Amino acid sequence: MTVDNQPVVSRAQRETVQDRIYNEVRNGLMFGQFAPGQKLKLRALAKDAGTSYLPVRDALGRLVAEKALHLLPNRTIAVPELSREVVDDVWRVRIQLEEFATLNAVKNLTKGDLSALNSIQKEMSKKIAKGAHLEQLKSNKAFHFAIYEAARSPVLIGLIENLWLQAGPYISFTRNMKDDSKIHFHEEVLLAIETGDAKSAANAIKSDLMQGLHLIRAMLEEAEANET
């Protein structure tokens, strides 16, 4: 049965589609797929997802409630704009939590986990060499969370994921820059994990995050200078 040529979706189906769209947009935000200030077109997203308007609206509404997206006065949903204050605040807390997660994860990582991390790192290196920036950011997220999840703390992972949601638009701001520093820091992390040195692994994660923060600050300062 259809109404106005739109398929009628059962409640159970609608929830399943909503969850899928929610997770896809959420993951996209976390690894920098969406740019700061970008407006999300609900009907275009619905068309891409092969679904109706309502589950997309509901999925994005969940992300607005989580403050990962903003609802503008005209009811448009958008990615948050750039802010140096937010960047500094988010990265300060990220560093604390991600260092802590790494310290607790190293003792739980197996040889199989280390092999998987090495594979992610090799793929990331290839993507950087090819200039596949968005794919590189996906690999970067996979690398970090493969470590953090070994801390075996759902609460900690939830907090880190929330911060990555807020950090994603800023990460996207730098995605067209060629930066090989992540490879260096990730290699330091891998070496520390291999030797069971949790403190060195955490320090390398901190250096990785600090380097990203420095790049974002520099680009924000350049953007502000160009506006004046």
UniProtKB/TrEMBL annotation:
Alphabetical list of Gene3D superfamilies matching this protein: GntR ligand-binding domain-like, Winged helix-like DNA-binding domain superfamily/Winged helix DNA-binding domain
Domain of life: Bacteria
UniProt cross-references to Pfam families, sorted A to Z: FCD, GntR
The protein, known as: GntR family transcriptional regulator
Entry-linked PANTHER family: HTH-TYPE TRANSCRIPTIONAL REGULATOR MCBR, TRANSCRIPTIONAL REGULATOR, GNTR FAMILY
Domain HTH gntR-type: 15-82
Record keywords, A-Z: DNA-binding, Transcription, Transcription regulation
